[in-house]
Amino acid sequence: METEAGKMWGSLPPVHFFSHGSPMMLCETTESSDYWRKCGDEALAHNVKGIVIMSAHWTALGDQIQVATNPAPRILPVGFVPSHDYKHYPLTPDLPTAQRCLDLLSAEGFTVSANPHYNWIVDVYIIITRMFPLGNPPPTTVVSMNARYDPHYHLKVGSTLRQLRKENYLLIGTGGAVHNLYRNRWMPMIKYRDSLAMETPPEEWALEFRQSLEDVMTRTSGPQLRRAVTRLMKHPKFRDAHASDDHFMAAVFVAGAAGDVDDEGCHGVMGAETWELTNMANLQVTFGEWSNQGAA
Ligand SMILES: [Fe+2]
Question: N or C end of the chain, less CB within 10 A?
Answer without folding.
Answer: C
